[in-house]
Amino acid sequence: MAEKLERGMGKPVGWMDDIHANISEQRSAPYDWVAEPGADNALHPLISWDQAADHSRIGGESNDDVKAWLPCPVICSENTYVLRVTSVSMEPKFHEEDLIYVDPDYAAVHGKYVVVKPAKSNEPILRQLVVEGDRKYLKAMNPDWPNRIIELDAKATICGVIIFKGELVR
Predict the structure, then answer these.
(1) pTM, two decimal places
(2) In what order do the strands lie in the sheet with 125-132?
(3) What is the pLDDT of residues 17-68, one digit of tens each?
(4) Whether the Cβ atoms of residue 59 and residue 47 lie closer than 8 Å to each other
(5) Do 44 and 61 form a contact (C-beta atoms < 8 A)?
(6) Would you say 165 and 99 are in contact if contact means Cβ atoms under 8 Å apart?
(7) How far is it, in rounded angstroms, from Cα 170 to Cα 148?
(8) List of residues 6+ apart from 98 with CB closer than 8 A
(9) Cβ distance 114 to 127 under 8 Å?
(10) Could you give the CA distance from residue 75 to residue 33 in angstroms, rounded to a whole number?
(11) E strands, the chain, where?
């Protein structure tokens, strides 16, 4: 069976018998695989949306503003934080009460779901980032949402990229 897999992957016979170190260097994105059990015992703060606007203040397990400390099931940076979805703007992709893990160190590129603090608002929003040429847009997934696509203001702040979603069983 291993030989068939090796041939299918274009690897030499016996390749699966060896340990291959630094698998993370072979990945195109550093956060697209599941963390190994016990590999990272870091806990990440569940915070409010207004706290996400300045997540750099969050830290240390003694922080009274943190609602809970949660492990992330995928590899993420130490700056990752957790938010509870409070809007229907991103349904059906994200539902109210879903937990989203936001990594401010992950690159915000076309198609990623991001938490953005608009220039004229104190509270961030969850949207999909759309990049067309030199212009960037924010897209709500809910087809009934007003102003479903808006241009990203140059003064807006991208607070992080969604790297994992935990949803309630419905």
Answers:
(1) 0.74
(2) 68-71, 43-46, 81-84, 99-103, 157-166, 113-117, 125-132, 135-139, 149-151
(3) 766 544 333 334 444 445 554 455 589 999 999 888 886 666 554 566 788 8
(4) no
(5) no
(6) yes
(7) 26
(8) 84, 85, 165, 166, 167, 168
(9) yes
(10) 7
(11) 43-46, 68-71, 81-84, 99-103, 113-117, 125-132, 135-139, 149-151, 157-166
